[in-house]
Fold:
Amino acid sequence: MRLLVIRTSAMGDVALTTPVLAGMRKQYPEIELVLLTRAAYKPFFTSIDGLELILPDLKNRHKGFPGLIRLFKDINRQSEIDYVIDLHDVLRSKILRLFFRLSGVPVAVIDKGRTEKKLLISGKQKFRLKHSVERYCDVFAKAGFPIIPTKDNWIVPSPEQVLKTGIFSGKHGGLNIGVAPYAKHKLKMWPEKYMVRLLELIAKNHKCRFWLFGGNEDSGRLFALQCRIAGSTSLVGKLSLNDELVIMSKLDMMISMDSSNMHMAALVGTKVISIWGGTDPLSGFEAWMQPESFSIRIPTEELTCRPCTIYGKGECKRLDFACMNWLTPEMVYEKIEKLVLSGTSK
Structure:
């Protein structure tokens, strides 16, 4: 049997397929597993043996409706698909799975829990929703393949890649701490001055280096931030995704907003302290397999408007951005010291 799994974006959501796909390969080795995703995300899957990747050209050959017809034909030209598992449920995947349905191929589709999420941000219900990884597992179960996600080794950089990177070589010693201070939407971002102060507090009490992560759109801000933080280095534009994953896997800790960097660091096995504002781990997007205490935020009991958004879009309805401004550097440092740094060399 040959299964086609669809998930082409966003980066963090694609990375979160790895515990499920690795579990599928381990529990059902006789099943041929094919993942349709973007070429940029190929490094996430190099350690999953037996996983076949289809990497569409969504900007040219496979762009638009005619491109999806070509993509459907290209997939079937490689080998016949017996079942489609849609982990995305967006317009592109809806059209593609329709083509398969019309050709007699059964399809299982993710339930994103949109109604539950609306109730969560409206304040009508404040309970933890299913994690994205659990929702992915549910889709495989619909197709007749119940899965237990693997507990470790989700994204494992190759030994060759580790040797190639070599960024931690030398006699510096001390802690290597990753910092991903930005996110796509402003309701997810802690004030920059708070992050600077937090890193000053850490550096005052621990010998360490800071490695700054972010997207290409953050390069200017990260360079300016590097100039304000002693012992910091911005990695934006200097590394491939492969190299970034290697660096993340060697960190003592990552400090991140609710972003793809949070997910990537967690999935390479690094401790991740995440800082939350308008969004909340209750929505099911927390760093996979990290302790709940590592997600730092103002409790919903103290600030009942939290969470006000699922993905970070929109504006603060209070106008004072209390969910982030109330979360002082001293508060965050105290938690990091207690949760991660206590017992490390100073």
Notes: The CA atoms of residues 86 and 94 lie 8 Å apart. The chain has a mean pLDDT of 95. The chain has two domains: 2-142, 167-341.
